[in-house]
Amino acid sequence: MTTKEEKGTCNQSRRSCSSHPAWLLSTLAEMDERMKMLALNGNTNRKVEGGDATDTFAQRAESYYQKRPQLLALLQDLYNAYLTLADRYSQTQTLAKQYNHHHRRQSSTLSQIQALHLDGQEDTNSYDEEDDDIGAVSDVESSLSYQPQPPLPMHAKLDVEAMIAEVVMKNVECDILLHEVSMVERRFGESTRKIELQKSLLEVLESERMILLNENVRLGYKVSALMEENKGLASESLFMKRKAGELARCVLKMREDHRVCMLSRKIEDLQGQIHGLEKRNKEYYEQLMKRDQEVERQLLKSKNKKKKKLGLEVCFQVHKLKMVENADVNVNGKDGGKVFKWWDRVKNLDLFICGPNPSSI
Description:
Shape: elongated
Pfam family, one: KIP1
Order of helices and strands: HHHHHH
Protein name: NAB domain-containing protein
Helix content: over 70%
Family: Belongs to the NET family.
Keywords: Coiled coil
GO molecular function, one term: actin binding
């Protein structure tokens, strides 16, 4: 059905375009050929789609992108052909108007020339008034019915030809002037349009300028307010800096006082530890002194006992006495050495190790 309709439309277009010029027929033939090519491509694609049931979206997209440049080229050609047809149509319309205007002017000039010629004939002829009236009526009727004129004399023909030439020259000059006037009018119209556009642009720019001026004024007020706020903030920042300096000094003083307090507490604790250690040292010293005194007493007692034994045992042998004396000397040396060594060890002890840790305090 589509091919039959396309054939019918093509035949109708050919019949209607048989009266058109050759250039139009050539463009129409090219367009028909391109439309046929597109129709054939569409039919083949449809046949392929009907034969292959497993058609994917990618294949359709590929076929679309293959057809797209042809369609774009066809649309571009249609647009260019439409522009050329519009230009030629406007040119033919202007030429037809000029031809009609020129034809009307020529017909009016010919009627004026015929009227002048009839007036000259009326002046030259020496007919009676009745004959003149009849001749004038007959001349008017002949001019209205476009009947052939009677032969004119040579000087009248020359005058008429000169007048016709002058009229034609005047018409040509008038056409040239009209063309120039039309060009000037076009330029004037274009200039007026440009002026109107420029006026509208100026109005828009003026409105934008006023808006920008108002915005500038508003921003100026805003900047002044911000400057005042900045001054206030600067003064506040200076005040805060001063306060911060004072607070820093107070913090330093508090830290120093805290450190002094901590050190004083540590000193007091250390003094208490020293006092306690001194007490313990005195106690240990007293205990040692007591032990020394007891040891001395025991030694004295042992010496006294030995002396008593010596007094009683005079009859012992000398060798035994020597052995006893040597044993006493050795005993005394050993006990005294032990006591003095123990006392030296007590003195050399680091008694501060036994105190509390100052860092924990």
